[in-house]
C-alpha cells in the first residue's frame, strides 16, 4: 500500500455541517466527505484490492467506492486531516494478514494435573453420599 499515492487519489467534498452551532454552521461548509475508489486505485495491488473488497463489503459501494465523513471540528482543514487519518487506519487494519494458528498439545504435566484434580473432586463428591447398606 502506497500511502502517498492513495492520498493523491482521494476526492473531497465540503458540506455544511448539521446540528447546533448557530450562525457559524449556517454559513460555513466545515463537514468533509471523502471518497476513495478502491477498484481504480494505483496505490493498491490486485491482491490488496481483492482483500479490501472481501473485508469491507458492507462499506464499499457496488462501484468500489469507500465514503467517509467527518464533522467533528469547526475547521474544514482539521476535518479533512481527521478523515484522511481514518481512511489510512481503516485500510491498514483490513489489509493486515491474520496470523496462522499453530496447533499445540497439552503438556504431560498439565494432563496429569487435570486428572489429579478430577480424582480429588470425584472423591470429595463420593464422600458426600450416604453409605450403601447391603442386606
TrEMBL record:
Domain spans labelled Prokaryotic-type class I peptide chain release factors: 16-32
Pfam families: RF-1
Ranges of Basic residues composition bias in the record: 115-135
One Gene Ontology term of the molecular function aspect: translation release factor activity
Gene3D superfamilies documented for this protein: 3.30.160.20
Annotated family: Belongs to the prokaryotic/mitochondrial release factor family.
UniProt-recorded name of the protein: Peptide chain release factor 1
Originating species: Cochleicola gelatinilyticus
Species classification: Bacteria, Pseudomonadati, Bacteroidota, Flavobacteriia, Flavobacteriales
Amino acid at each position: 500500500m502506497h500511502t502517498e499515492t492513495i492520498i493523491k487519489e482521494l476526492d473531497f467534498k465540503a458540506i455544511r455541517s448539521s446540528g447546533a452551532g448557530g450562525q457559524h454552521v449556517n454559513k460555513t461548509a466545515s463537514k468533509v466527505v471523502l471518497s476513495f475508489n478502491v477498484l481504480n486505485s494505483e496505490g493498491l495491488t490486485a491482491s490488496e484490492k481483492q482483500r479490501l473488497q472481501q473485508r469491507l463489503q458492507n462499506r464499499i459501494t457496488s462501484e468500489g467506492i469507500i465514503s467517509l465523513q467527518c464533522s467533528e471540528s469547526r475547521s474544514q482543514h482539521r476535518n479533512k486531516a481527521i478523515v484522511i487519518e481514518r481512511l489510512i487506519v481503516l485500510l491498514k487494519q483490513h489489509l493486515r494478514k491474520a496470523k496462522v494458528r499453530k496447533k499445540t498439545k497439552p503438556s504431560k504435566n498439565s494432563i496429569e494435573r487435570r486428572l489429579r484434580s478430577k480424582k480429588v473432586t470425584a472423591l470429595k463428591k463420593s464422600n458426600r453420599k450416604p453409605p450403601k447398606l447391603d442386606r
